[in-house]
Amino acid sequence: MKLRWPRELPKVRLCFLLGTMACAAQASEPTHFPDAQASDPATLGWMVGSPPPADRILRFEDGSYFRFPQMRWSVANFRQLMPTVNVSRGLAGPSMLERTSSGEIDALTFVPLGGDEPMTWQQSLLANYTDGIVILHRGKLVYERYFGVLKPEGQHAAMSITKTFTGTLAALLVSEGKLDPERMVADYVPELAVSAFGNASVRQLMDMTTGIHFSEDYADPKAEVWAHAAAGNPLPKPADYQGPRTYYEFLQTVKPQGRHGEAFHYRTANSDALGWVIARVSGRNVAQLLSERIWSRLGAEQDAYMSVDSIGTPFAGGGLNAGLRDLARFGEMMRNEGRYNGTQILPPEVVTDIRNGASREDFAKAGYRLLPGWSYRNMWWVTHNEHGAFMARGVHGQALYIDPLAEMVIARFASHPVAGNAANDPTSLPAFEAVAKHLLEQRQ
Amino acid sequence: MKLRWPRELPKVRLCFLLGTMACAAQASEPTHFPDAQASDPATLGWMVGSPPPADRILRFEDGSYFRFPQMRWSVANFRQLMPTVNVSRGLAGPSMLERTSSGEIDALTFVPLGGDEPMTWQQSLLANYTDGIVILHRGKLVYERYFGVLKPEGQHAAMSITKTFTGTLAALLVSEGKLDPERMVADYVPELAVSAFGNASVRQLMDMTTGIHFSEDYADPKAEVWAHAAAGNPLPKPADYQGPRTYYEFLQTVKPQGRHGEAFHYRTANSDALGWVIARVSGRNVAQLLSERIWSRLGAEQDAYMSVDSIGTPFAGGGLNAGLRDLARFGEMMRNEGRYNGTQILPPEVVTDIRNGASREDFAKAGYRLLPGWSYRNMWWVTHNEHGAFMARGVHGQALYIDPLAEMVIARFASHPVAGNAANDPTSLPAFEAVAKHLLEQRQ
């Protein structure tokens, strides 16, 4: 089997999402990586032993935890590396996830984007450096696999899927009349009046159509991405440190670039700013509100958690860690118009609004070659395909894929060596579509 | 109501249990403290707001988190301040804790140790700076209260109750023949041959009758307590730092003092050394083993967690944080000879051995004026009273009190300003006995 899609993709350096200095270490990484089996974190034995061997110890402060393949351990163990805040599931029993069979999924084949030879579903799991994957069909568990160090009773970094929870919470507050999407951000957070966010509308934040200057040029030590990472780093700041010291301080320094409302620009800072708005409006930080309004009502089987900055601010743009099945439960709730575990968790109109998406023209301006015709609404990625599928996405392959027509939810955690999902979309999106097609055929 | 027991007790500086430098900050604290209501962390609003006011922000690195009254927030939020490792409850539903009434407990009266005027149970809750307390009678929940920032769905520092879990796990391994209590510590952990622990028996570790030099003189910058704290601190070490860098490195530096096996000496380092032995024997660290062998079998309603050092070693001497009801479930399992949630979690002989206690003469040499006739076995405190009560105890008022005759378990989390339990025993131990007496009378 030969694939034409490139193994050496430009490295989309989104590792700042972790709010750390890890990217400094990553900048010197090779662009060829060991494959999924050679990089298996269980085989490599990171942090195993009493004490672990010196070359198997991973640390937060020196960035070793986020080099590849080390990060394959770290994404399932962030709480051992940094302070975190709990997202309680409450104390009741978990909602049942009934199991059933839906035929042979492993042998399903698909043609990767840009390729011309088929690949099996099972092969795609390794190609995508999958750590865990769950498929629900009509709410029942039809497929579940774990790799490396992730287990069902474990929590994995959701990366930018965090944004989707932040956006969904904002949409919920909007539906309750507590948050007006047409009002300016500074109306809710006066401290942001000095920043580019101040005269953006809440809607523009939620759909990431703000015009802000946020450089991700890692070669430039003055790039905003470094200030964001340093601000969010929970470790004590160096004595000579002069920059912003928290997410909130960083957000006030963000400068304008272009006009608001004209194009989709994927910038993590929008989610952090939205998190601030949510905190002001609700009197809860994002972790607390997520627990109260969603997590504790899902019948989640595990608490989730979020990383925090040095003053306890949950990282609304990328700090969530959760169990895989619980992520699937959240997806199933979305598939069921907001209803799950016997409760209407989100009003149906919130879900409908997300599914309907936003402006596809605004989205097209961002130039995602692999996502033609998509849009971004309330921090969800909307495919606008024939099945009406929509997604939550996070760097290194985190995915929650909801296909309403096929009555299917796929939740996946991964640790792909390349941050940007352009590296795994070719072997992910058509694979998800192949399962959807299979499940639709099963139904007939 | 006048009490004769002193409000100004010598401060037993056991805060090193946290493995931090917090005691430096504490050293200049007053010896008069605001009372429970004036120090209520919910009222004081620590870490509330977006951002919190500057004078309400608590940090790990500067020790502010462990000053009083700030620590009343911190003990319910350690994971926001430092890296931690999960102790999974597994994924099944929690075991039921049925509720029932057992008469009016709040109005029960008792005479504090060293006092001559009665106090009510309800008054004792404030006197002890209680954060949460649960009473089980015959396994049913007959009393439950929370104060400050602790909630049922929250986890509180168990402090040295951690030791009791470590000791119980060791006893379990002994019962399975995996650990021989008569063998030398160095037989299991050769690295400890150079230390005072090397030629101690595992039994001496488990009962804390080792002869080790472990000064807790905070005025002495060379005291072992500082080295222990610095070694366990998960933050990056200062550039000029020369000392041990992990719990394991610290343990190898512990020097002998006196002979092993002659007297009870309460020294946290014994628990850490036992944790190392356990890790070697089981191939699991204490957090993993605790999850596998106890926590996931209790039907706990929440995961617990442990603080870790810079290489992920769980702090076996004091790092556990757990839900209050789950601590009570553990106590109920002990009351039921190791059986709980439909499972024999510990062999009955392990529990019997603990209840029988150890040498009361060895214990008496330690000079605990308020604990006459007690002993210490497998890191449990055994009262040898007429009810056969035994306890797990942690600084600042953490308590798990099991009274077999009264068929009663009391689990309490607290944030008393004085670390040493001599400060709260006068209003705790007779209060527990008063409830036991009440429940025995109810039965008749």
Automatic annotation (TrEMBL), chains A, B:
Keywords: Hydrolase, Signal. GO terms for molecular function: hydrolase activity. Pfam families: Beta-lactamase (PF00144). Residues 1-27 form the signal peptide. Residues 133-418 form the Beta-lactamase-related domain. InterPro entries: Beta-lactam-related, Beta-lactam/transpept-like, Diverse_Enzym_Activities. PANTHER family: BETA-LACTAMASE-RELATED (PTHR43283), BETA-LACTAMASE-RELATED DOMAIN-CONTAINING PROTEIN (PTHR43283:SF7). This is 6-aminohexanoate hydrolase.
